[in-house]
Structure to design on (1008 residues):
């Protein structure tokens, strides 16, 4: 059965009580009408409506919704509430509940489609309506959140293509973080969906709600949302509002007074008008304006809360009691709940509700069979709450909670977050036990839908509620701490995890003798450190201590045994015990296969082995392991964290580059990008763009672009948006571009650290700045820190350490240190590039050999580096190797012509890539050689070697772009060479140049 297009579902119109006609905001309404038109045409978007309390945000959204309903839109509304530890995804749950009440079940089931199980994570009530819905399976948190977001997008898309949708999210300044993340995801998928999302928010709350501020900034920056901020009404606008309450134009003094006192805030204006009308100071019995009214007699209160208080004071006692209880129950409340509170008998209760509705303080928002009401404005509810003493407010919270238990006894799981909130607000005493119990259950419910911040809030509430009531025994408290720690880990609050929560849980578990719980606490602490500090973590004493604790506690045959081996492998490797590290990694792999461990465990083993076991003896095993992972991750299995898969692929791409296989690395990055396209960007940072805009840009000679990308990653790390593990990638393509551009000083502060990974680049910078003694001191300290024989056993050193220490030693001219650090590389048969801070290993070995006076060996290494860099299309390294060859040939072999030929290739490349330090060096050498060289050429008409190479390719029919790619030079350099060829040969075009080449025996290269 299908839902026919055009089938329409409407929500009941809001409200009782007379409302002032909507005035002003014509420009904003026109803008929103245009968005409505675009949504009707299939191009949806998000509109954020901001302003101070009472600015008319909700009213504007309602007016647009009325127009949308008249045009056949499905209209849904979800609210966010000012309640600590509320329901995760609250506004989306409300919208779904509306759908379940008013949309025919057959239509709703079709809209849910195959994603019903995921959508039902947020609304378990769907399972009562649709018993056929399967149960959503367990999976890694990032993957689970991705599927959940995808399910919601698909659900809205299916609904909107049957009937256009307008979705109103009220008060998103109070939205939980999970709701904001889902909103960001939806915004990215609305461009081809007939849906308009309207969000209202208080702009004054942005300083408090940093989550909303970040979300708003991101949506506007990416042009995924339009931000409309409502100001106050002009005096003319106030006059129009006043005129709507009487007959004819209002007295100008009255308008002026109201405008002065309210400053044009629409809600304040309306409340003042109601206040004056209720005092019979506004309208005469016939509906006209009170004549000869004295302004001094109006007694207009000077704040909107005072106006509301005076209006509330004029209500009957029963109505005031009803509204006080309802205010505690929430912004929206049901008749059933306030009736069950027992403040009033059914008859007086109905009278009180009708009285409040006539006063415009509440609106009827009933749908289906349930009678429900909402406060007309949050300021009304906040004023009521402010008038309650703490004991009375606590008593009301307790009564509301107990009432909800009675009413919803068969479906408490859907209300645990509300019950937790009310019981916590009820204070200490008899309610403490239930506050703890419901808070723990609410934390678990939030964690089950990957709402980590909300889970944290509930677990913290449970711990706080138990403090004075001893509602948790030691084992229960330890369990809550462990659950809180897991939520902190996934939420990215690492410092609190390893600095406070995990240690507390560990101490309690050890007191209990609970080995498994203690092991979990040790793993959480270590994992928090490792995720935050990445490669720097194993060198920290606290990481080593937690690894040893986990090792003592881990039981064979469990995942903790595997995790213990991995943690100890990292600490062993960072202290040069690489054999031990490799042994533990491989043992962990055996255990993982025996236990049929999930993919995330296997990926963790691989990344540990790839990062820490880099020596030549492990090359074959590491490459095979990488190949196995790459072939298995053609698609990401459902039980794999996509972030883990992407990180593993990033390491595999780096491994391919290390062996000079750029095409294979690019293929891996393409696969990463495919995975990342399936994952909401809100779930985690992306690596593939950093390879393309950073590392590959650096290799292509786009140094400025690479440096900008690295700076962006570092900035996002400082703000906490990306983990430190990403900085390894940023350092890879950030350090050398800045260094080659002649702007490395910014790195000094970042590298001013005794951490092991900071020392190699720092030594290079010190050498580059001529601070030789400081550079030598770094090198000597690192050599002394290595165990005996480490230089002869390259497995104790990572490739980038050795290469950069060789580079630093040659910069300061220390032959002894250059030989010491180069020895492992000479003996191992060096790979193409280093594994971090990518550069050509053979170029640096050539420099070390030249420093040692081994010029033949230097020439061999340089020649090999040039061939490798050319094959990889590694432009900066091609140019730098040409310069190195020029210096060697000129200074040690006296082959001036060949040296000049290399410089003619290098200099325009340095100019094109803005490599100022290398350009100065090359031009200085060129000037010196030209002044002493005898002009001669072995080619006709003074053609140079490089010009002949270009001419051969021109004769073969290659385009400038193809020539640039083959010779690894820029197209501008090719143009310069072609121009010189035309000038020297007299050719006026490429055909004549090709004929010239044929006449002079300059044959094109053989076909590839």
């Amino acid at each position: 059965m299908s839902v026919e297009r055009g089938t329409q579902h409407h929500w009941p119109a809001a409200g009782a009580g007379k409302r002032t006609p909507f005035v002003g905001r014509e420009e904003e309404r026109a803008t929103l009408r245009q968005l409505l038109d675009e949504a009707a045409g299939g191009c949806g978007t998000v509109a954020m409506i901001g302003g101070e309390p009472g600015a008319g945000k909700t009213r504007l959204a309602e007016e647009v919704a009325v127009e949308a309903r008249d045009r056949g839109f499905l209209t849904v509304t979800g609210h966010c509430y000012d309640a600590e530890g509320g329901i995760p995804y609250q506004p989306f749950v409300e919208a779904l509940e509306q759908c379940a009440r008013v949309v025919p079940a057959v239509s709703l089931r079709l809209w849910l489609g195959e994603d019903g199980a995921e959508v039902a994570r947020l609304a378990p009530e769907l399972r009562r309506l649709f018993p056929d819905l399967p149960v959503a399976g367990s999976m890694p948190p990032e993957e689970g959140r991705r599927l959940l977001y995808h399910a919601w997008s698909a659900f809205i898309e299916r609904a909107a293509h049957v009937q256009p949708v307008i979705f109103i999210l009220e008060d998103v300044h109070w939205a939980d973080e999970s709701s904001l993340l889902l909103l960001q995801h939806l915004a990215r998928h609305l461009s081809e969906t007939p849906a308009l999302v309207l969000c209202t928010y208080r702009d004054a709350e942005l300083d408090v709600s940093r989550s909303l501020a970040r979300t708003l900034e991101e949506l506007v920056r990416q042009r995924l949302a339009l931000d409309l901020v409502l100001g106050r009404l002009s005096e003319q606008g106030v006059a129009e509002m006043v005129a709507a309450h009487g007959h004819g134009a209002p007295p100008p003094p009255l308008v002026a007074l109201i405008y002065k006192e309210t400053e044009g805030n629409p809600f304040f204006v309306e409340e003042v008008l109601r206040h004056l009308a209720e005092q019979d100071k506004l309208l005469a019995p016939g509906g006209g304006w009170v004549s000869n009214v004295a302004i001094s007699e109006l007694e207009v209160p000077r704040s909107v809360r005072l106006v509301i208080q005076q209006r509330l004071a004029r209500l009957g006692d029963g109505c005031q009691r009803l509204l006080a209880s309802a205010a505690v129950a929430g912004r929206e409340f049901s008749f059933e709940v306030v009736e069950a509170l027992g403040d009033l008998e059914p008859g007086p209760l109905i009278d009180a509700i009708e009285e409040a509705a006539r006063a415009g303080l509440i609106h009827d928002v009933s749908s289906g069979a349930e009678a429900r009401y909402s406060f007309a404005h949050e300021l009304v509810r906040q004023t009521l709450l402010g008038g309650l003493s703490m004991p009375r407010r606590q008593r009301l919270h307790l009564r509301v909670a107990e009432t909800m238990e009675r009413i919803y006894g068969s479906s408490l799981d859907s209300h645990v977050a509300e019950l937790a909130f009310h019981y916590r607000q009820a204070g200490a005493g008899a309610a403490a036990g239930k506050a703890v119990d419901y808070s723990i259950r609410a934390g678990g419910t939030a964690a089950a839908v990957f709402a980590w911040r909300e889970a944290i809030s509930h677990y913290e509430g449970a711990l706080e509620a138990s403090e004075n009531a001893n509602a948790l025994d030691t084992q229960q408290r330890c369990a809550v701490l462990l659950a809180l720690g897991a939520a902190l880990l996934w939420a990215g609050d690492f410092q609190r995890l390893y600095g406070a929560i995990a240690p507390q849980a560990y101490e309690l578990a050890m007191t209990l003798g609970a080995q498994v719980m203690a092991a979990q606490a040790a793993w959480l602490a270590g994992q928090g450190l490792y995720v935050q500090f990445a490669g720097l973590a194993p060198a920290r004493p606290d990481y080593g201590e937690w690894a040893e604790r986990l090792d003592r506690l881990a039981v064979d045959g469990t995942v903790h045994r595997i995790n213990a081996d991995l943690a100890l492998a990292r600490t062993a490797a960072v202290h040069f015990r690489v054999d031990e590290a490799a042994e533990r990694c491989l043992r962990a792999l055996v255990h993982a296969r025996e236990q049929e461990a999930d993919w995330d465990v296997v990926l963790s083993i691989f990344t540990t082995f790839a990062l820490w076991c880099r020596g030549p003896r492990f090359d074959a095993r590491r490459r095979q392991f990488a190949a196995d992972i790459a072939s298995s991750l053609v698609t990401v299995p459902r039980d794999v964290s996509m972030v883990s898969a992407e990180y593993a692929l990033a390491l595999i791409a780096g491994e391919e580059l290390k062996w000079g296989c750029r095409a294979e690395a690019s293929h891996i990055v393409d696969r990463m990008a495919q995975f990342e396209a399936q994952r909401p960007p809100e779930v985690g940072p992306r690596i593939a763009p950093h390879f393309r805009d950073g590392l590959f840009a650096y290799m292509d000679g786009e140094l400025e672009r690479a440096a900008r990308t690295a700076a962006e990653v570092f900035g996002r790390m400082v703000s906490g948006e990306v983990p430190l593990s990403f900085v390894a990638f940023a350092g890879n393509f950030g350090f050398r571009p800045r260094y080659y551009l002649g702007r490395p000083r910014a790195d000094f502060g970042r590298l001013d650290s005794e951490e092991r990974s900071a020392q190699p680049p720092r030594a290079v910078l010190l050498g580059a700045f001529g601070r030789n003694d400081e550079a030598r001191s770094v090198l000597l300290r690192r050599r002394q820190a290595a165990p005996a024989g480490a230089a002869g056993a390259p497995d104790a050193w990572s490739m980038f350490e050795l290469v950069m220490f060789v580079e630093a030693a040659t910069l300061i001219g220390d032959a002894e240190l250059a030989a010491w650090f180069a020895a492992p590389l000479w003996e191992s048969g060096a790979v193409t590039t280093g594994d971090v801070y990518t550069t050509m290993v053979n170029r640096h070995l050539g420099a070390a050999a030249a420093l040692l006076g081994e010029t033949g060996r230097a020439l061999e290494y340089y020649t090999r580096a040039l061939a490798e860099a050319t094959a990889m299309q590694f432009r900066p390294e091609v140019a730098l190797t040409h310069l190195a060859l020029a210096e060697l040939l000129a200074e040690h072999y006296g082959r001036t012509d060949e040296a000049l030929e290399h410089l003619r290739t290098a200099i325009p490349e340095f100019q094109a890539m803005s490599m100022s330090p290398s350009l100065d060096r090359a031009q200085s050498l060129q000037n010196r050689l030209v002044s002493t060289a005898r002009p001669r050429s072995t080619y006709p008409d003074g053609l140079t070697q490089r010009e002949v190479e270009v001419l051969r390719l021109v004769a073969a029919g290659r385009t400038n772009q193809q020539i640039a790619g083959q010779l690894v030079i820029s197209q501008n350099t090719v143009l310069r060479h072609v121009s010189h060829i035309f000038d020297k040969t007299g050719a006026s075009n490429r055909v004549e140049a090709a004929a010239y080449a044929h006449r002079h025996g300059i044959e094109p290269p053989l076909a590839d």
In short: The two ends are 60 Å apart (CA to CA). The longest helix spans residues 141-162. The longest strand covers residues 195-202. DSSP finds 48 helices and eight strands in the chain.
